[in-house]
Amino acid sequence: MTAAEPAGGLPAGLIEDTRLVDALSERYMAYAMSTIMSRSLPDVRDGLKPVHRRLLYAMQQLKLDPNSGFKKCARVVGDVIGKFHPHGDVSVYEALVRLAQIFAARYPLVEGQGNFGSVDGDGAAAMRYTESRLTETASVMLAGLEDNGVDFRPTYDNEDQEPVVLPGLFPNLLANGAAGIAVGMATNIPPHNAVELYRAARLLIDRPDATTAELVALLPGPDFPTGGQLVEDQATVVEAYETGRGSFRLRARWHVERLKGGAWQIIVTEIPYQLQKSRLIEQIAAEMEKRKLPLLADVRDESTTDIRLVLEPRSRSTDPEVLMETLFRQTALENRFSLNMNVLGADGVPAVMSLKQVLQAWLVHVHDVLVRRSEHRLEAVRKRLEILDGFLLVYLNLDEVIRIIREEDEPKPAMQKTFGLTELQAEYVLNMRLRSLRRLEEEALRKERATLGREEDGLVRLLGSDKRRWKRVSDDLAAFEKRFAALPGGERLTQITEAPKEIDTSAALEVDREPLTVLLSREGWIRAVKGHGLEAASHRFKEGDGPAFAVECQSTERLCLMGSGGRAFTLKAADLPRGRGFGQPVRTLADLPVEETVVSLFGLQEDGKWILGSRQGRGFQVTAANLGAEKRTGRQIFNLKPGDALLSCLPAAGTHVLCLGENKKALIFPSEQIPEMTRGAGVAFQKLGESTLREIRTLTLEEGLQWREGQRLRPARDLEPLLGRRGATGRMAPQWMLRK
User: Fold this and answer.
1) Sheet of strand 110-113, all strands in order from the earlier edge strand to the far edge
2) Which numeric CATH code is attached to 370-485?
3) How far, in Å, CA of 66 to CA of 139, rounded?
4) Can you say whether residue 184 is alpha, beta or left, with left for phi > 0 and alpha for psi between -120 and 50 degrees?
5) Strand (E) or helix (H) holding 636
6) Per-residue b/e over 49-75, b at no fewer than 16 CB within 10 Å?
7) Strand, coil or helix: 269
8) Which chain positions carry the site (Interaction with DNA) (predicted)?
9) Sheet containing 515-521, strands listed edge to edge, beginning at the edge strand earlier in sequence
């Protein structure tokens, strides 16, 4: 090897020609696999991601058992990132905090001392202030590491070993749930009740062909640490667990508290999982300001260690069920928790599993751990029996053993030859203390020999029978079922109820639904005026300004504003300024560029369709669902070519469309020839050449057309000469259509 070559054998400064697409593909794939395998997806066997597994193992190495003292979280995090997990301390500490939060984990694996956050969304204190140790549940998960229950692998720096998976008899994946986002895939698993999980697992041991419906009979749904009510019909729950994908409808738990004089108030004691109480209150207050909760007078937070939200009705005659129904529909007091059981299998391959597959994979892991621990114990028992047999032989020939030790230069081989001892037996005999040669010690050895002999026979029978092993697993699960049932909080926290019946809240909402007329001036000032049937011109505008659009709607409706640049903006009628004055510039509500104008303003009906047309004679139909845009920047609907602009946005109410070009040619064609699109440049309405469109109208041919106010109604026979197919040039328009 020359001096120019490094130890690896490659010349220094070597540059390889590689296609950029190949290099990017290779590196991105490596990154994606690292994210999936080592960060985001949990293992189906212990339900942990690598960072959580390393946290628990590091805490065990620090001897932070449930009965020991606490240690600073900074010490734990330091050990984890220094020995096992070379990442940032902030992310590792956040993972530790989550394992300790009683409102986040159904069965916390870490017991925290200090400020570990709250259900209000408050963050934990810095790790230099908080302390932690393992819980009893974590001890269950770690049990068996010392008995060769699982494989170990080298750490990132090859200086230590870490477990590939934890061996304990706790179904952590389903009991505590998991959430994560990887590259191209994600997982979201809710927590469940451990007692119910043990029962379902035992059913699978007794009856491997059990159906998902039979498992759901024992495991009726998630069990969240924050309680609440699961209001989902059983068929939906069974389908979600059968496919591994679905969602669960979750509601807050509440009751009516009676006051003096016939008054009452609603007390919310449990809120949906992962919902911050402070944000919930802010949302309710915001909806009250928007007049979307007409039955609610006030909301107060009287929580201490337990949640207590007070909801005061506007009238004591209000039905509490109706009031809560309006809150469930408008606020996060009811939400959905999605289920996506995408996990890493024992072979490291990610897959979406059903409830039965997850439980079966965990049971296979438990069985494998039992076999490995039994084999490890059998090996230890046989080694001890071999040693005991050597000791007992010594007691039968004590004088000869002493003679050999005193007279022989190499007593070990001489002893092996004389008594037929193995090397291990001879070594232990030579290391025996003289005080062990008492008669009582011999009796103790014989008793130990008999006990270990019986244990050896039991282990041999266990390892030789698949039926015995599964019976042992079932018995162990039954013992843990009783153990977790006796713990505080072992009972189900989330109430399972039937799907609620539909409650009519229309009468309640009518209290706050008022008619409005929205006025938009030519200079872009917008305001809402109470009432319908109003003359827009009678309302005050700035000097030189006047009405451009007047839309009659309800205060609960949404409006769509279309700009000439092809962008749709959504305005809420309840948010528009009212009262005296000129209103508010519409550009402060929608980011409409200064060079663009407002083409149309209309109410968004859910089942409505509109026809968009540009000056260059192109367009398409669009539905209300595609016009909605919650952001101020709006949604680009029409992709315009340079020099083009949106001309009109018309309700698709008629049977035909009329196009009139600046070249004075008109064309009428069926509206059904216009395709429905979500966005794009549309199709050609009329062939215009160098000209542009002047006007687009919709009409019903049989009803005729009134072109301008004051003109007579033109019957269908007057319009027939203009009929053609979409995209045609059209014919010269009649004079009554060209007059301005």
Assistant:
1) 71-72, 131-134, 110-113
2) 1.10.268.10
3) 8
4) left
5) strand 635-636
6) bbbbbbbbbbbbeeebbeeeeebbbbb
7) strand
8) 49, 85, 87
9) 547-554, 515-521, 525-530, 584-585
3-state percent helix, strand, coil for the chain, nearest multiple of 5: 40, 20, 40
How crowded is residue 717: how many other Cβ atoms within 10 Å of its Cβ? 8
- Biggest CA pair distance of the chain: 138
3-state secondary structure of 43: strand
Strand stretches in 191-252, DSSP E: 229-230, 245-251
Residues 345 and 373: their CA atoms lie apart, in Å, by: 22
Residue whose entry in the numeric block shows the structure tokens 């495991």: 219
Dist. CA 511–CA 516, nearest whole Å = 14
Token pair of 644, please?
A: 């083009």
The class level of CATH for 506-738 reads: mainly beta
Task: Tell me the C-alpha distance between 4 and 91, whole Å.
Answer: 43
pLDDT per position as a tens digit, 509-541: 555 567 888 888 888 888 888 888 765 546 677
Three-state SS at 494: coil
Are 157 and 144 in contact by the 8 Å Cβ rule? The answer is: no
DSSP code of 403? H
Q: How far is CA 325 from the centre of its chain?
A: 25
Report the C-alpha gap between 165 and 568 in whole angstroms. Answer: 52
- Token digits of residue 97: 């905090």
DSSP 124-136: PPPTTT-EEEE-H
- Range from 347-361, 562-576, 705-719 that averages highest in pLDDT: 347-361
Answer whether 613's CB lies under 8 Å from 659's CB.
yes
Alpha-helical segments (H) within 421-576? 423-430, 439-464, 466-485, 506-509
What integer best gives the mean pLDDT of the chain? Answer: 88
Residues 25, 558: Cα–Cα separation, whole Å: 45
Residue 731 DSSP symbol: E
- Range with lowest mean pLDDT among 223-237, 354-368, 397-411: 397-411
Token pair of 452, please? 């270990």
Topology, domain 30-189: Topoisomerase II; domain 5 (3.90.199)
> What is the set of active-site residues?
129
Residues 93/80, Cβ–Cβ less than 8 Å: no
Q: Is 586 exposed, middle or buried (0-12, 13-18, 19+ CB in 10 A)?
A: buried
Q: What is the pLDDT of residues 100-118, one digit of tens each?
A: 999 999 999 999 999 999 9
Count of residues for the chain?
740
Residues 195 and 73 sit within 8 Å (Cβ to Cβ): no
Quick one: 143 exposed, middle or buried, by C-beta within 10 A (0-12, 13-18, 19+)? middle
Tell me the three state secondary structure of residue 732.
strand
For residue 104, the 8-state DSSP code is T
Q: How far apart are CA 321 and CA 150, in angstroms?
A: 54
Q: What is the pLDDT of residue 686?
A: 93
- Would you kindly state where each structural domain of the chain is located, as residue ranges? 30-189, 253-332, 370-485, 506-738
For 139-152, write each residue's pLDDT tens digit.
999 998 999 999 99
Domain 253-332, CATH class in plain words = alpha beta
Beta bridge partners of residue 611, listed in sequence order: 621, 650
Q: What is the pLDDT of residues 446-504, one digit of tens each?
A: 898 999 999 999 999 999 999 999 999 999 999 999 999 998 888 999 999 887 887 77
Which contacts of 87-93 are long-range, i.e. CB under 8 A and separated by 24 or more positions? 87/51, 89/127, 91/51, 92/51, 92/55, 93/124, 93/127
- Which residue has 């409005």 as its token pair? 516
**480 neighbors 302 (Cβ within 8 angstroms):** no
Neighbour-count burial of 707, counting CB atoms closer than 10 A to its CB (0-12 exposed, 13-18 middle, 19+ buried): buried
